[in-house]
B3/4 domain protein
Amino acid sequence: MEYRVYNEVFQVLPSFSRAVVVVRGADNRRAVPELEEEFQSLVAMVRSDPLSESCDRLSDLEEAFRSMGFNPKRMPPSVVNLVRRIRRGGSVPFVNPLVGIFNMASLSGLVPCGGDDLSAIQGDLELRPARGDEIYRPLGRPEEEEKPRPGELIYVDSASNQVLCRCWCWKNGDVSKITEGTTDCAINVDSIGHLSKTELIGLAERVAHMVERYLGGRTWIRFMNRNDTSFVVPS
């Protein structure tokens, strides 16, 4: 399995970079009360911080969506939606340890993060413009189908044509959702220039450390930008 970011992504998002944490052999069924407590503490911190919703990182993500022709009020970047929900008093479920870990990375760094179950992937992982014939099934509503608009940046399985995430970091699909039974996954930690390579990798290292500490298994980190656009996913 290969992981590729197409050059067209950098034409739209010139400063885009991504740290990918590949996880193999994690036990996501474990009860980890310490991790869940840390997650809830972070949620409470964001809820009480009035600056969290108006910081430059989130504003720049919204502006990036506008530059791609999407209304960030109707289609917010994932981390913007997460912070907004918390600030308005909404609940944010822990879901399971792996999901909790990448949501903690997203909230602590105020950057988009997401994860996908590698057992659901039939081909290669690609971040690229949509052709318009791909299939997206919304998270929690697998019976529904959507088609991304041509040119929209999508994260997609090259073999099944199933969209894993629409509009770069808007919303995840159901097909590769992380469940309690997930053992192998790829967790993406993104930046559009707010974090240096060292800072972004540092955030990914914290993700990897928490996975290995609480869930076992092995992790690898791969850094991607306009100069490093592909790698073979460790097995």
